[in-house]
């Protein structure tokens, strides 16, 4: 039936386009003579879970950093939710949640202060969702970030990434180094 519908649309001259959350075409990133990402092309459909696998040094984090406009590509282009990361950086960041492999926080803030501060950066921050995640993780909201364990910091990072109900969630090895129980809770919270 899908093929018949597609064939019929083509017969009618209707342009059929797939909706992609991420579109990458010929993306390359060089650091001097070192090529970290070499002519990468891929499309990630909306509404799916996509795993970006490769050995250490394969360019996974570099690619994600280009999608987040933390690094500029040497060549090629990318689109995130239909937007150019360079030209539409703020619009993209309002629509996605991102957890890096090594999140940087203001360590002098408490959990509550950091959540409040982050909430001010988003037009659609959901205080109820953020509070629900903090409760689920059983985090002490009065504790300073610098006093948290690695697992607790990962839970805070996920809370911040999900607190505005993003259309797209990008996770860059957020659970590496976490114990089994914290890792399970982290992944359960990510996909609810």
Which architecture of the largest domain does the CATH hierarchy give at level 2? 3-Layer(aba) Sandwich
CATH class of the largest domain, please? Alpha Beta
- Count up the domains: 2
N→C terminal distance: 31 Å
Uncertain regions spanning at least 5 consecutive residues: 1-17
Radius of gyration over all CA atoms, rounded: 19 Å
Name of the CATH homologous superfamily of the largest domain = P-loop containing nucleotide triphosphate hydrolases
Average pLDDT for all residues:
85
Number of helices: 7
The shape is globular
Task: Summarize the helix and strand pattern as letters.
Answer: HEEHEHEHHHEH
> Helix/strand-derived class?
alpha+beta
- Percent of residues in helical segments? 25-40%
Proportion of β residues?
Answer: 15-25%
The CATH topology annotation of the largest domain reads as Rossmann fold
Tell me what you see in this structure:
The structure is a single chain. The chain is α+β, with helices and mostly antiparallel strands and 192 residues long. The chain has 2 domains: 15-87, Rossmann fold, CATH 3.40.50.300; 97-192, P-loop containing nucleotide triphosphate hydrolases (Rossmann fold). 36% of the residues lie in helices and 20% in strands. The protein is built from 7 helices and 5 strands; from the N terminus they run H-E-E-H-E-H-E-H-H-H-E-H. The chain has helices spanning 2-11, 60-67, 89-95, 111-119, 127-137, 150-162, 180-190, and strands at 20-31, 34-45, 75-80, 96-99, 168-171. It has a 3-stranded antiparallel β-sheet with strand order 2-1-3, covered by helices on one side. Strands 4-5 form a two-stranded parallel ribbon. The protein is globular.
